[in-house]
Specification:
Distance between the termini: 21 Å
Helix content: 25-40%
Number of domains: 2
């Protein structure tokens, strides 16, 4: 018998015609991937406010959105937490399990609001990015203290939950806290959307692509500096940036300003957020190299890597978080040191110059991506959830 599954994360939603709703692309795709395994998925999400990215319409008939209040600032959401939690509690007798993605401000409260097995899907550590928060020191310290408290409460919830993490580093950290945790990979591309090509880099200008959140810890300024160095060395390259901006982080403006001030303004193009599917994947199909430069040790495994490999695109990425743990084979990607534009430029040069290596990267990456489709990851996740729910029911009957 299929489950009635609750889901919560802080990424918001907005209503659409016909009873559908829209949210950000990765969340929408994730929800639609698990829907076939469930009788119903009840999504306890905030309602979008101005500036929120909600470009993906969720159309599966068994996915329902329950509005838990506006996606306002974190302090405002915490002040109205009781109203949000009451919206969840009203359905607690209708659920078989509750899946909560984190870190998220209301994760502890939502998890405690239901009397069903709780599954935590943890995908990062907010404390790891505190150093990149801009503004006065007191503000950064308040944010640090909040997420320190949130982590403490999340760990308390985790002791009675099934805990899944998409980063080997995060798995090790949680295990060190005495929390049993299982690795759960993520993907954003369906098996039907793969696009193989034997090679790239046929003609200049060579197109470098960054796809992901436009936030400071993603090393975007390092990528721009690497592009500047490549141009200085005579390479004809263009950088395409695709992804949603993070509210309060003006890194997109900083990136374009740096490009302009260093004489490469016409070579760095920001295209905004694109929903997963034809609009986003068109950028992969015309690109020559995917470039990722995250500096965070708690980086999970970026979905952009799978998307690139699924489109026959070689990858140059920094050696952080889950990236080197998943890409263990030397010829699936070029891995470079974080916070080092020259290392990044050298890695890109290697891919542009060495055709035989580039083709091997494409072939091995495509093969690896075939093992990590959206459908396969959804099936694995639901299997773990069903086993956990079954165990809890057995214990309860005993």
């Amino acid at each position: 018998m299929k489950m009635r599954l609750g889901f919560h994360y802080h990424a918001p939603a907005r209503p659409c015609s016909g009873g559908a709703f829209a949210t950000n692309g990765p969340q929408g795709r994730f929800l639609e991937s698990i829907a076939p395994y469930c009788e119903e998925v009840l999504c306890f999400l905030h309602s979008a406010v101005e500036g929120d990215v909600t470009e993906y319409v969720v159309r599966a008939p068994n996915i329902r959105w329950i509005d838990i209040g506006p996606h306002s600032s974190v302090p405002r959401r915490m002040l109205s937490a009781r109203r949000s939690v009451d919206a969840v509690r009203a359905y607690r007798n209708s659920l078989d399990a509750m899946l909560v993605r984190g870190p998220s401000p209301l994760l502890p409260a939502v998890a405690r609001a239901v009397d069903v097995p709780v599954i935590l899907l943890l995908v990062g550590d907010q404390l790891a990015g505190i150093a990149d928060v801009r503004g006065p020191v007191w503000r950064r310290e308040l944010i640090r203290l909040f997420w320190l408290w949130n982590r403490h409460e999340t760990l308390a919830v985790a002791r009675n939950a099934l805990v899944l993490a998409n980063s080997p580093e995060l798995c090790r950290t949680l295990s060190g806290c005495g929390i049993p945790v299982r690795f759960a990979g993520t993907s954003n591309i369906s098996a039907s959307e793969f696009y193989f090509r034997e090679d790239t880099c046929f003609q200049a200008p060579f197109r470098l692509l960054y796809a992901g959140r436009i936030s400071r810890e993603k090393g975007l300024l390092d990528i721009v500096e690497a592009v500047r160095r490549l141009v200085a060395e005579g390479w004809d390259v263009v950088l395409d940036l695709v992804g949603p901006q993070i509210p309060g982080d003006a890194v997109a403006e900083d990136v374009l300003s740096l490009a302009k001030s260093t004489g490469i303004g016409s070579r760095v193009l920001y295209h905004g957020s694109k929903p997963p599917g034809p609009e986003l994947f068109a950028f992969y199909k015309r690109a020559d190299v995917l470039v990722l430069a995250s500096s965070s040790s708690f980086e999970g495994f970026p979905r952009a890597v799978w998307e690139a490999m699924a489109h026959g695109l070689p990858v140059v990425a920094t050696r952080v978080g889950g990236i080197p743990k998943v890409l263990t084979h030397l010829e699936t990607a070029i891995l470079v040191e974080p916070k080092c534009p020259q290392s990044l430029a050298n890695g890109i040069t290697l891919v542009l110059r060495e055709g035989e290596l580039r083709r091997r990267l494409i072939q091995s990456g495509y093969k690896l991506a075939k093992e990590n489709t959206l459908e396969r990851r959804a099936e694995e996740l639901i299997s773990m959830v069903e086993s956990f729910v079954g165990e809890r029911r057995s214990v309860k009957r005993a």
